Fold this sequence. Notes:
The protein is α/β, with parallel strands linked by helices. 40% of the residues lie in helices and 12% in strands. It contains 14 helices and 11 strands. β4, α5 and β5 (122-124) form a beta-alpha-beta unit. The relative contact order is 0.15. Mean pLDDT is 88; it is low at 1-29. Bound molecules: zinc ion. Residues 55, 57, 100, 295 line the site of zinc ion.
Amino acid sequence: MNRRSVLAQMVASGVSVTAFGPTAFAGHAKAFTGPTAQTVLGPVEVSRLGFTLPHEHIADGPSFLGKWPKAWGGTAGFTKRAVEKLNLVRASGINTIVDLTTYDVGRDIRFLKEVSQQSGLNMIASTGQRFFPPQYPNVSMPARTIAGLAEFFIREIEAGVDDTGIKAGVIKIGIVGKKPSALEEIGLRAGIRASKATGVPLRIHTHAIDRAAENQTPILADEGMDPARVSFDHSDDSGEMDYFLPLVERGYFVGMDHVHRGLTPDAMPSFERRIKCIKMIIDAGFADKIFLSQDLEFGGSLLPEAVQDFRSKLDPPDGMLFTTRTLIPGLMEIGVSARDIHLMTVENPRSFFGMADQPQ
Ligand SMILES: [Zn+2]
């Protein structure tokens, strides 16, 4: 057995990811000697983030509880089930989960903090806007101006979310279609300004199949945004190298977090095409511009299969472990090195989520 297949086996068994990076743990360090990322438990040195999933959804878990209260026997039962699952995630070698659930899609910040504390996983919460205007019931739009919305995002980063003092450490902006609507453009510009004001990075939900990032880069450039602080998420929904390469060449990140969707019969692009594109971007010299994740709706994944809805069925069959169990072994099988896996899963998050201005 050669070195690669040994590593692949170790990854598949969930053992080796800890060997890829430092052992990280959640907690509020007292003195910082390096850059920090803002987690729901306070700032953590980026050297302690370890293996990081940069685009997931944990914080809307209680909204699934609200829809299916009998499935778990109430909040305590739901939290217990969530922590049991997250303990398995942590045991597999994953250290940090970035939660991109914004206020308008049911973010419950207290739940996120609770499961972070109980599981020992670092969690980074997001501010920002998924839908514009919000489509979630009982939520009103905080502002319709760039300045007003930026102020709201900055408050969630600097003062905290929902009067809890729990601070967001990333900004997520949703651009639903090929081109941003007028309101989505306001959201994007507000996200950029909040990022520049706070040092917190920006992740954008993009409709990559329509090459949506190409309609967003002019706005980012107009606002003077540093491409190294931006990730275009769901990028693997495009299978076109002439879409990816100009983005990474300019310094933007591409989030490859829908790879599991390629496993669905007749999916375009297929799983094979998606991992081949990742390999080709790496071979072009841009492993330092790729993120791997799985955009999992965690609460939905806890539901009994009989009541799972469309969105839950889109999620990977091995849930939070898809990246370590299926995606990484798949990439190594086609020749991606352990070195590049480490870069994409440990080093890129370490540089991206470190805040430009250090909170003390
Ligand atoms: Zn998402």
